[in-house]
Design a protein that fits this description.
With 424 residues, the protein is α+β, with helices and mostly antiparallel strands. 50% of the residues lie in helices and 19% in strands. The chain has helices at 15-26, 30-36, 44-50, 86-98, 124-133, 135-143, 147-151, 186-204, 230-233, 236-251, 253-273, 278-289, 330-339, 344-367, 372-386, 391-404, 409-420, and strands spanning 62-70, 73-80, 104-107, 111-119, 155-166, 169-179, 207-213, 221-228, 299-303, 309-316. It has a four-stranded antiparallel β-sheet. It has a four-stranded antiparallel β-sheet with strand order 5-6-4-7. Strand 9 (299-303) and strand 10 (309-316) form a beta hairpin. The chain is globular and about 80 Å long.
Length: 424
């Protein structure tokens, strides 16, 4: 039977029941399912070799975004986040998008940019010309550093150079364009940039200081689009409200910051679950949103000729399937198996779809009843736990607070006392 990411009543199941479904969907072994279901599945000795000064681990809740249909393929999305409503919202939006045929995605080659900063130049423009004239030699020097990457079709593919004005005078920025294949690429790019620095100093008669990749990966972009039938999203008024909200974000950086954060809620949760560098993704996304000189939104929603909702998103996505915690962290490895992606490009495209879904859910809520209704009902459970409620009473207390529209620790404690105090 064909696999489907549509799982009716998934949120009503116990964690053990949900895990059994995911185990079957992703073909997890018994050991992998047992490992992912543990309270903390990262052994302390492994953590001690991952980062410095280890004293313990810090688990995040790990959930599954359901209903995702991307380029005709069914996906379950592992998401690690502490924020209530993120996973539920993404799953709900993905279900709406399915009604319009699912998400459609594309991406550019996985090219990262390494920057080599050259200063103390007599004539920066002449130095730039000399560097470009020596492109073949510089690229050879770069590619000599990583023959394995070249073997798999990657490596330094091109070279660029820019003269910039700074508070300390003109600088020449030499850029290596490196196809990193299925790696995020930081180590490979930095190694190449460092190796090329002495040669560039010799060519320019300048001095190199920084030689490092940039997280503004403008040559490594992902895109996702979708069409949501107007009746599915809530009618013409809902379509119009989302389109107005999108226009607001495009024009106003204050709104754009929160608009983009909404999309990143889903993206970062998935990046974190898979052991990728979420800080690099977020830095690159925000820088890309401001690349024109004004910070704006990286997603767009409009009403088409039929009155349906059309959405699109584009942003840099430097993620990998190899290297770092992706192959070290036991849960990250299992999450990658659940996701089932076969290349870094496919992974990036899935993340774009997740971001677009998360953005849709947030805008639909904002333009209708407001964000708090759904968010606070889920947040109420966290508040109940903070008030000291035992597991068996958390849902009862949360439902009471949500119904009363009074979600705070004091009210949770009052309800808890009421439920636990024996009546005479």
């Amino acid at each position: 039977m064909a696999k489907s990411s549509v799982i009716s009543g998934f949120y009503k199941l116990t964690p053990k029941e949900r895990l059994a479904i995911v185990k079957d969907f992703a073909g997890l072994t018994d050991d992998e399912a047992q490992l992912i279901g543990q309270t903390c599945a990262l052994p302390l000795d492994v953590a001690d070799h991952m980062v410095e000064n280890v004293i313990g681990t810090f688990p995040e809740p790990l959930g599954i975004g359901a209903n995702f249909l991307i380029n005709g393929i069914e996906y379950l999305i592992p998401m690690a986040t502490e924020e209530p409503s993120v996973i539920a919202a993404a799953s709900y939006a993905a279900k709406m998008v399915r009604e319009g045929g699912g998400f459609h995605t594309s991406s550019t080659a996985p090219v990262m940019i390494g920057q080599i900063q050259v200063v103390k130049l007599e004539n920066a423009q002449e130095a730039k010309d000399k560097v470009l004239a020596a492109k073949v030699d510089i690229l050879k020097k770069a590619n000599d550093q990583d023959p394995v990457l070249n073997k798999f079709g990657g490596g330094a593919k091109d070279l660029g150079a820019r003269v910039i004005e700074t508070t300390m005078g003109q600088m020449l920025i030499v850029e290596l364009y490196v196809d990193c294949r299925d790696a995020m690429g930081a180590n490979a790019v930095n190694t190449m940039a460092e190796a090329c620095a002495p040669l560039i100093e010799q060519i320019t008669n300048g001095q190199v200081y920084l030689r490092i990749l940039t997280n503004l990966a403008t040559k490594r972009l992902v895109r996702a689009t979708c069409t949501v039938p107007k009746d599915t999203v809530g009618g013409e008024a809902a379509v119009e409200g989302i389109a107005y909200a999108s226009a607001f974000a495009a024009a106003d950086p204050y709104r754009a910051a929160t608009h983009n954060k909404g999309a990143l809620n889903g993206i970062i949760a998935t990046v974190l679950a898979t052991g990728n560098d979420h800080r690099a993704i977020e830095a690159g996304a925000h820088a890309y949103a401001a690349i024109t000189g004004q910070y704006t939104s990286f997603s767009k929603w409009t009403k088409n000729a039929n009155g349906d909702l059309e959405g699109s998103i584009e942003l840099p996505m430097a993620v990998g399937l190899i290297g770092g915690a992706v192959r070290t962290h036991p849960i990250a490895k299992i999450c990658m198996k659940i996701l089932g992606v076969k290349s870094a490009n496919e992974f990036g495209e899935v993340l774009a779809a997740v971001g677009l879904a998360q953005n849709l859910a947030a805008l639909r809520a904002l333009s209708r009843e407001g964000i708090q209704r759904g968010h606070m009902s889920l947040h109420a459970r966290t508040v109940a736990i903070a008030a000291g409620a035992p597991t068996e009473l958390v849902d009862t207390i949360a439902e009471r607070m949500a119904k009363e529209k009074t979600v705070n620790v004091n009210r949770a404690k009052e309800i808890l006392e009421e439920l636990t105090t024996k009546k005479p």
